[in-house]
TrEMBL record:
Membrane disposition: Multi-pass membrane protein
KW Membrane (keyword) present: yes
Transmembrane segments: 9-27, 33-56, 93-113, 120-137, 143-163, 175-195, 219-240, 252-276, 282-303, 310-330, 342-360, 380-398, 418-438, 465-484
Domain NADH:quinone oxidoreductase/Mrp antiporter transmembrane: 140-425
Principal location: membrane
Enzyme class: oxidoreductase
Top-level taxon: Bacteria
Gene transcribed to yield this protein: nuoM_2
The protein, known as: NADH-quinone oxidoreductase, M subunit
């Protein structure tokens, strides 16, 4: 039964789109009800299965899923001529990322109920985007993985170009073309993996059992790693993020920053590092040098911007750099911290972009210099934004503190001098983060209230519900991180074992 429920995670959003095909676009209330219901059902299924994964920890797993301890394992022939199978499964890492995705999709649907334009198409694109992200996290066949990975780029472009604001066509094209460039690098290495592993299977589990030639790993690992890193805005492929976020509607920004940008880091860990551990040991120290921009210069750029989405976008670039710092540490604690940061940052940016969208819907501006004193009219939304800022600072009690502290400890365990220097710089950059977050909150929320904002209203029930749920998730992870760390450790152990046992 649980296996059926697990497979339904990506199927239900797709069925929702098909169910709405024959419903006229004028029936907006019916369409909204269907999509909210669908997102809620998927969220309930994912929460139940996440609990089930935790309850099953320590019990034997399907031998076919070794060396990864996967639950709800499914292996069905798919494209026989290409040796591709429909292979999905769950462990603590991808199940937690599925839970993150379900929460952000649910929240994104709720905040978009008053989106202008053709709501039928907009919500269909959200569901298709959700289908692709769910599929990426569930897949263990590389062909299936790549198909789902590519779906999201087209959905993102259509949603930004058709429903965005400002330079939406430019922002959408920049995002899509940059992601396509990264995907081309991934595709080239996938073919190499297939043939170098014997040309018999695209199964990630089976390929992991083979030792790939070192000369292949030396060119394939950096190509694949950087191809995935494009989605996660690793320098120098970060430039799509600010323009893409600034042009995107609220739900798209939430999904892009909250879950799509984690797909790249997940691919780096689950595919590149797991399948090519020898090359990972050689190349990842060079990645640390790139992080100086992400974790140090990113916050300084955020200080200079006045647009709320640009500020949040550069904040995300900085926080995502910490994920790569944890991965590059190549220690169990570093990998755990990187995984925790994926989840923590997903909820954080979801909350940030949700509150920014709610404020923009009322003020019709994202320029903090044009605001001031709006806390008096929107106390709930203002508090939500401030709490997102506190979580972004890594304040104790929030998830960011646990994730970032774990990364710093894991990185210091690495003997590399460069890694320790970058870690120290990352810790010091928290001060810079405090500057732009406090500066932004002060300019927006305090001071004299402009006359044009006298009629502003606070958040409605659904908006308050989104803020409460996302804040609760940040607090829950920050206060009770033990069970999440336990799930992640079980997932990371096979990956770290393969890396630590790799000979050079």
């Amino acid at each position: 039964m649980n296996t059926i429920l697990f497979n339904s995670i990506w199927v239900l959003p797709l069925l929702t789109v098909l169910a709405c095909v024959l419903i006229p676009a004028t029936y907006e209330k019916t369409l909204r009800t269907i999509h909210v219901t669908s997102a809620t059902i998927v969220l309930a299924i994912v929460c139940y299965l996440t609990y089930a994964i935790y309850a099953l920890s320590g019990t034997p797993t399907d031998p076919a899923a070794a060396p990864l301890a996967l639950r709800f394992f499914t292996d069905i022939p798919w494209l026989s001529m290409f040796n591709a199978h429909y292979i999905v499964g769950a462990d603590g890492l991808n199940m937690l990322l599925l839970a993150l995705t379900a929460f952000i999709v649910w929240a994104g649907v709720l905040v978009s109920l008053k989106i202008k334009g053709n709501q039928k198409i907009f919500f269909a694109l959200i569901q298709l985007l959700a289908t692709s992200v769910y599929g990426v996290y569930m897949s263990f066949d590389l062909v299936l993985f790549f198909v789902f990975y590519e779906m999201e780029a087209l959905c993102m472009y259509l949603m930004i170009a058709c429903y965005g604001s400002g330079k939406r066509d430019y922002g959408g094209k920049k995002l899509t073309l940059t992601l396509a460039f990264g995907s081309s690098m991934i595709l080239a290495t996938l073919f190499g993996l297939y043939f170098e592993s014997g040309a018999t299977s695209w199964n990630l589990i089976e390929i992991a059992k083979t030792t790939l030639p070192m000369d292949f790993q030396m060119w394939a690992f950096p190509l694949m790693f950087m191809g995935f890193a494009v989605s996660s805005s690793l320098f120098p492929f970060h430039f799509w993020s600010p323009d893409g976020h600034s042009a995107a509607p609220t739900a798209v920004s939430m999904l892009a920053a909250g879950v799509m940008m984690k797909m790249g880091a997940y691919g780096c860990l689950r595919v590149a590092m797991f399948l090519m551990p020898e090359a990972a040991k050689i190349w990842l120290p060079y990645v640390v040098a790139l992080l100086i921009f992400n974790v140090v210069l990113g916050p300084f750029i955020a200080i200079r911007h006045k647009d709320l989405k640009y500020i949040t976008a550069y904040s995300s670039i900085s926080h995502l750099g910490l994920i790569f710092l944890g991965l590059a540490a190549l220690t169990p604690i570093g990998l755990r911290g990187a995984s925790l940061q994926m989840i923590s940052h997903g909820f954080l940016t979801g909350l940030f972009f949700a509150t920014i969208g709610m404020i923009y819907e009322r003020t019709h501006t994202r320029d903090i210099t044009e605001m001031g004193g709006i806390m008096r009219k929107m106390p709930f939304l203002g508090v939500g934004f401030v709490l997102a800022g506190f979580a972004g600072l890594g304040l104790p009690g929030f998830s960011g503190f646990i994730a970032e502290s774990t990364i710093f400890i894991g990185a210091f365990q690495q003997d590399s001098t460069l890694t320790r220097i970058v870690t120290i710089l990352a810790i010091l950059s928290i001060t810079t983060t405090a500057v732009y977050i406090l500066q932004t909150a002060n300019r927006m929320l305090h001071g004299p209230l402009p006359q044009k904002y006298e009629s502003l209203t606070d958040g409605c029930f659904r908006e308050k519900l989104v803020i409460v749920v996302l804040v609760a998730c940040l607090l829950f992870i920050g206060v009770c991180p033990g069970w999440i760390s336990e799930l992640l450790d079980q997932s990371i152990a096979p990956i770290f074992e393969k890396i630590s046992s790799a000979g050079l």
